[in-house]
Design a protein that fits this description.
Chain A: It comes from Methanosarcina lacustris Z-7289. The complex is a heterodimer of chains A (about 110) and B (about 270). Chain A has 4 helices and no strands. With about 110 residues, chain A is mainly alpha-helical. Classes of the chains: A mainly alpha (about 110), B mainly alpha (about 270).
């Protein structure tokens, strides 16, 4: 029973900590105006953060051992190329994912 | 009376369209959250916890990397302060998400607390990139996207905890769908914005953090680094960085509008 209670308290603590990080900016700027510098920065955060999320997705790639991140970089190139060409989000995403799954499951770059 | 009925019916149909549109928007997140959620559920199950905890954690915490970290801390028998501090630091990047949504979330009415609660990386990416369908309610559309993503995550983790050990699906590589989603959304941002500097800042900050810091820390550090670069550029007066379709609307105006008591549906995007 103490195990259950301890687990529930732990979950509550993690949930509160997570929510705190999400609600913080809304609490800070609900009544007062954000500083001018912030409102210009705020407009530029989404493009920057989205590209950072792409880079973040590559965080676990082993760049110095085979296959040197080539499946990831190659597929990202294909997704970007497809998207610049057709601009069809579903096509770019699913063709890219299918390609990547094939590349890693059949170990296409095993010759490296 | 009949007129009102017709109107109500029309509205319900409009909501259905809005829901279907949100459903379509969230398909990549569905495909990403199911295997990732399953991985979490499987891990928690492997650590010896009942599936009900996978359900509760995904429902109440709802943070991918945060929950993976929690499993590691549980295995290490960490104390509550460690859970709190580690989670705060790992998820601090979400504060930056809120910073860029202050305006978008003003005037969404009673769903605002839930939208803030459900602000994951993927939901943030969709909300900042997807246009609200013409004539649709912004509040509803955002709510559908956030709630659908949340639902996929909970479903995935319960599936993982329940049958992860029995199923032998080869989902290897499927989580790449989220990478592809971020690539596509980045390109959409590129098309929609007139300035290129945020992308340069991201490459600089991202690659630097990737080289210098551990994988768990790199996202938060790179966001802080990138924001500092943006501020530095702004302070140096290299022109106004303003981007996107917020055309000409200044922050002061929108805040003044948001300060007035508004109905849920009163502030719509045209």
């Amino acid at each position: 029973m103490t195990g259950t209670l301890q687990m529930l308290v732990t979950i509550a603590v993690i949930a509160l900590a997570t929510f705190a990080t999400r609600v913080l900016p809304f609490l800070c700027f609900s009544s007062r105006e954000p500083p001018a510098i912030l409102s210009t920065i705020e407009k530029n955060l989404p493009p920057m953060i989205l590209l950072l999320l792409v880079i973040y997705c590559l965080k676990d790639v082993q760049w110095f051992t085979a296959p040197y991140g080539i499946p990831e970089l190659f597929t990202i190139g294909v997704v970007a190329g497809l998207h610049f060409w057709k601009r069809n989000a579903m096509l770019s995403i699913f063709a890219g994912t299918g390609l990547y799954m094939a590349l890693v499951q059949f170990n296409v770059f095993s010759f490296l | 009376m009949i007129e009102m009925e017709a109107k109500r019916h029309e509205m319900r149909e409009g909501n259905m369209d809005l829901f279907l549109s949100a459903l379509k928007t969230t398909v990549p997140v569905f495909l990403g959250y199911i295997p990732l959620g399953m991985a979490f559920g499987f891990l928690l199950d492997g650590a010896g916890y009942h599936w009900i905890y996978a359900f509760l954690m995904s429902l109440l915490i709802y943070a991918g990397s945060g929950q993976f970290l929690a499993v590691a801390l549980l295995a290490a028998r960490a104390g509550l302060p460690e859970f709190a501090i580690a989670t705060l630091l790992l998820n601090l990047r979400h504060s930056f998400y809120g910073l860029s949504l202050l305006e978008k979330f003003s005037g969404v009415g009673k769903v605002k607390p839930y939208l803030i609660f459900a602000l994951t990386d993927e939901t943030y990416a969709l909300l900042t990139t997807t246009e609200v369908p013409a004539g649709g309610s912004k509040a509803r559309f955002y709510f559908y996207i956030a709630a659908l993503d949340h639902f996929y995550w909970v479903t995935g983790s319960v599936l993982g905890a329940g049958l992860g050990s029995m199923l032998d699906l080869n989902l290897k590589g499927m989580a790449f769908v989220l990478t592809a989603l971020f690539v596509v959304l980045t390109i959409e941002q590129y098309f929609n914005s007139s300035v290129r500097f945020p992308f340069i800042a991201a490459v600089g900050a991202g690659v630097t953090s990737l080289i210098l810091f551990s994988p768990e820390k790199m996202l938060l550090i790179s966001i802080i680094l990138g924001t500092l670069i943006l501020i530095g550029r702004e302070k140096l007066g290299k022109g106004n960085l303003r981007v996107n379709k917020g055309t000409g609307k200044t922050h002061t105006q929108t805040h003044a509008a948001a300060a007035k008591p508004v109905e849920d549906n009163a502030q719509e995007e045209s």
